[in-house]
Amino acid sequence: MSKSLTPRVAVNVLLVLLLALVPVYAALTGSTFAMTLFARIMIMALAALSLNLIMGYGGMVSFGHAAYLGIGGYAVGILAKEGIASGFVQWPAAIAASALYALVVGALSLRTRGVYFIMITLAFAQMIYYVAIGLDRYGGDDGLTIYRNSQFGGLIDIGDKTVFYYLCFALLMAGIYAVWRIVNSRFGLVIQGARSNERRMRAIGFPTFRYKLACFVIAGAMCGLAGALLANHTSYISPAMMSWTRSGDLIVMAVLGGMRAAFGPLIGAMTFLLLEDVLARATDYPNLIIGPLLLIVAIYVNGGIDGLLGGARRG
Amino acid sequence: MADALLEVESLTKRFGGVVASDQISLALKHGELHAIIGPNGAGKTTLIGQLTGEIAPDAGSVCFDGRDITAVPVYRRSALGLARSFQITSLFMDFTALDNVALAVQAHAGHSFRFWRDARRDRALREPALAALAGVGLAGRAHMTVADLSHGERRQLEIAMALATKPRMLLLDEPMAGMGPEESARLIEILRRLKNTMTILLIEHDMDAVFALADRISVLVYGRIIASGDPDAIRADVAVRQAYLGESAGAAHG
């Protein structure tokens, strides 16, 4: 809350400015490539942000988080295929379906912990993945092309790349702000207390399970929204968007950027996806470089990239 | 039994072939400080676990304020006014001292499905928490993280957290464990002040503390209470001297 210009504040402000100016750069150069890439970065950052809420603040390491991206995306894709193009129907459906899935998975998994929790969340995500493969009407293994973006009745036209970009930008900023408010609220302190020492939380009188479940559902809903954005971004859905490697990518983004840092998921998603993009053009084996790099960050940098900016964080 | 706040009746718990609690019966009157002593492995922690609800007894019952709470879950016992401190300090290490106590206050300030307001600026939580910290002499440490507090300060913080829940009864599980003589003396003073304001069950190894504070003492050996009475009676009890005080007095005072 201090008003002094710490390195962290400076970096975060620059980051927001950079994101805000990408469409200007695109307009000047006449190339939409950067805008497409950065819209994708912001969508994945929103997904990583929701993971950071449960994993970073709540200590719940979900290894099936890409399932929410898939559910959100398929909600949009399936409704589009069935002729319901209204975003006012599609997006709430994406959010509600993801929240419902989170409620079921959370109710069954949150009584376990550690590696069991990781395995259960992974197992559920794999189940959804194979369900998607089995949906022959919606493309099965090959996926489904979405021929018409979500329609918002003339309010905004997300078919326009710049409009869509700024919508992603606005939703990501709203998401970062909301998570920051949540984790410092009474609810957020209960979640963080449960991460720190759940046994003690119960001893002082908190029924921790229901709070953790609520947090799980909030994160699922937020990631479902990211899925709806992703489907509109690529105009295409497929089971690959929820494969377990995607869940792994999201964990990497959250850890890389710095867990429990407000802008950590954005920093992580941006670093990861930019590296991937640059290296994919420079070499045939980008993972050969990304892998060791992650290892170095995991071993030597406590608190991810955000941790490099120094200073004590609250919470 | 109107004058008993806590009543334990024939509490029994077995772990395999070991009888950790063997037909334990106890009654604590309002305002009393009742100490339980016993050698290592006597079943003291198992007993406190059953009182707080973390361990389910095989037989017997626990009544609090006239209500059978044997099957009541941990978090709800806390809401009824039964607070505990842990033998091994069990705190939120990455939180500040004040955050720790404020969480305890929050636990008893209605539900926590409040998602927006900054809880660290909520005076309804911070002020009682600061008061509880001051009560155990930690006001000056409020904004330090627990990881940076000394062992003795963490034990004091344990008690501040238990107090912050405004309990009607305090279960203290070896609050002096691992403390130096000065820290112990300070804690004895704190407990002496507390003792007039609430009912306390004290489980403790430190004989000086027990005999200085207790109104009544029960001696637990191999899961069984072999004697119960005021400090003078316990000191004079032959069975107790043989079973416990005689063999460990040297160590306890060493």
Structural write-up:
The complex is a heterodimer of chains A (315) and B (254). Chain A has helices at residues 7-29, 33-57, 66-81, 87-109, 114-134, 161-183, 186-203, 208-234, 244-257, 264-282, 287-300, 304-308, and strands at residues 144-145, 236-237. By secondary structure, chain A is mainly alpha-helical. Chain A has one domain (15-308): ABC transporter involved in vitamin B12 uptake, BtuC (Orthogonal Bundle), CATH 1.10.3470. Chain B is α/β, with parallel strands linked by helices. Chain B folds into two domains: 1-81 and 169-254, Rossmann fold (3-Layer(aba) Sandwich), CATH 3.40.50; 90-166, no CATH class. Chain B is 38% helix and 25% strand. Chain B has helices spanning 44-52, 74-80, 97-107, 123-135, 151-164, 181-194, 207-213, 231-236, 238-253, and strands spanning 4-15, 18-29, 33-37, 59-64, 67-68, 82-85, 169-173, 199-203, 216-221, 224-229. In chain B, strands 6-7-8-3-9-10 form a six-stranded mixed β-sheet, sandwiched between helices. Chain B is globular, with a radius of gyration of 18 Å. In chain B, 44% of the residues are buried. Chain A binds chain B through residues 181-182, 184-190, 192-193, 196-197, 199-208, 211, 214, 314, and chain B through 52, 54, 74-76, 78-79, 83-84, 86, 90-95, 99, 102-104, 106-108, 112-120, 122, 125, 161, 165.
